Amino acid sequence: MATHSLLLLPGDGIGVETIAEVERLIAFLNAKNTSSTFNVERDLVGGAAYDKHGVAITDAAMAKAKAADAVIFGAVGGPKWDKVPYEHRPEAGLLRLRKDLDLFANLRPAICYPALADASSLKRELVEGLDIMIVRELTGGVYFGEPKEIVTLENGEKRAVDTQLYTSREIERIAKVAFDLARKRSNKVHSAEKRNVMKTGVLWNEVVTQTHKSYAPDVQLEHILADNCAMQLIRNPKQFDVIVTDNLFGDVLSDEAAMMTGSLGMLPSASLGSPDAKTGKRKALYEPVHGSAPDIAGKGLANPIATIASFAMALRYSCDMGKEADLIEKAIANVLDKGLRTPDIMQTGMTKVGTSQMGAAIEKELQVLMA
Ligand code: NAD
Fold first, then answer.
1. Which residue out of 100, 255, 320, 326 is catalytically annotated?
2. Is 188 an active-site residue?
3. Which of 193, 225, 284, 302 is the most exposed, having the fewest neighbouring CB atoms within 10 Å of its CB?
4. Which of 252, 250, 253 lies closest to 232 in space, CA to CA?
5. Mean pLDDT of the chain
6. Is 94 touching ligand 1 by the criterion CB < 6 Å?
7. Cα–Cα distance between 300 and 189 in angstroms, integer?
8. Three-class secondary structure of residue 98 per DSSP
9. HSE toward the beta carbon, residue 12, CA cutoff 13 A
10. Any idea where the domains of the chain sit in the sequence?
11. Whose CA is nearest to atom 26 of ligand 1?
């Protein structure tokens, strides 16, 4: 029997409530005694860690994160910590996790459950059954390149500079993540850049083309200019399977794609590092896209689906449990088909439920699917 080690970091606000629903599913899967079992550790992050230890994440929690097969993260932040020193603000915990685990690949799926297709701003026929994966390079590019500064010129004018910078190694490793993912999906990758006006785009295009030839000739590859990609996502989103792109374009395109599918409460994500030279395992962190939602925290109103779907991604990408991941996603779709809705996705004629009722309904559905 395989044992998978998970570190749960609920964090603050609704993170605590939505991670509790993941714990419910972990307990169910452990009791079910399938071919895998989970060894679970918990720790503090964000404001909760600051309150207890004076830092947004402790070295001990970082050591647990490094040792785990997957970190499942809730959310951090809230008005209570608005005035803490900048280096200890709740977000610093998440940034340290991303940096120290070198999580360079951000996976943002945009899945439109048929039951929620009418909540999209696009027509039902364009989005129903949509299933795209945006792979965004997360640790390089214009958000990190130097120089990065605002200087005052001799004439008193100010000048701001950000530097877009990529090495071939950075491009190759993210391209490989995209090709690996495509093989588990519909085998198609679009690589988006701006080679017509940017040198980084020229190199991106070259390296993705070379990596395709040497590493993944079996996968279908198309290059697309990032601005055209933004248009095509609105015109005909179902033409895409995996889109790989840099940090800046990925930031924008992943939000664009995600919003076609409805509420923030539905959006999972994963961040992956390089494969370990010996074991081939990647460091990985899974988290909902949303924040700690202080406006609804503690009221049992949060939608747990984004966090549960993030857990399903952990099963698929870190635990080699693709079958169970598929079943969790199917359970989510079935519960939505039956009309259960948390307040953020409520529609007329549906049944309004709270966080734990939604989690319990997904568990019950999973029980039926795994019977
Ligand atoms: P938010 O995502 O927390 O909330 C935005 C809106 O969406 C709110 O009205 C909230 O009630 C709603 N919402 C979000 N998730 C929901 C869910 N699962 N179910 C139902 N409704 C949901 O963003 P914000 O309000 O801009 O930020 C609040 C705090 O969260 C801030 O401190 C911010 O810094 C932090 N934040 C953290 C992360 C993270 O931990 N990764 C990400 C974004 C924001």
1. 255
2. no
3. 225
4. 253
5. 95
6. yes
7. 39
8. helix
9. 26
10. 1-108+263-371, 131-260
11. 291
For 111-128, give the secondary structure using H, E and C. Answer: ECCHHHHHHCCCCHHHHC
pLDDT tens digits for 85-135?
989 999 999 999 999 999 999 999 999 988 898 888 899 999 998 999 999
Q: What is the pLDDT of residue 335?
A: 97
Nearest CA to ligand 1 atom 8: 293
pLDDT of residue 270: 97
227 is catalytic: yes
In the reported structure, the alpha carbon of residue 87 is separated from the centroid of ligand 1 by a whole-number distance in angstroms of 21
Kindly state if the Cβ of 291 falls inside 6 Å of ligand 1: yes
Q: Which fold has domain 131-260?
A: Isopropylmalate Dehydrogenase (3.40.718)
> What CATH architecture applies to the domain 1-108+263-371?
3-Layer(aba) Sandwich (3.40)
pLDDT of residue 86: 87
Low-confidence ranges of the chain (pLDDT < 70): none
Ligand 1 pocket, mutate which of 44, 264, 342 (most atoms under 8 A from CB): 264
pLDDT of residue 280: 85
CA dihedral 292, 295, 298, 304 (to 10 degrees): -50
At residue 47, the pLDDT reads 98
Q: Give CA–CA dist 41/320, Å, rounded.
A: 20
Mutation probe of ligand 1 site: the residue of 271, 289, 292, 301 with most atoms within 8 A of C-beta? 292
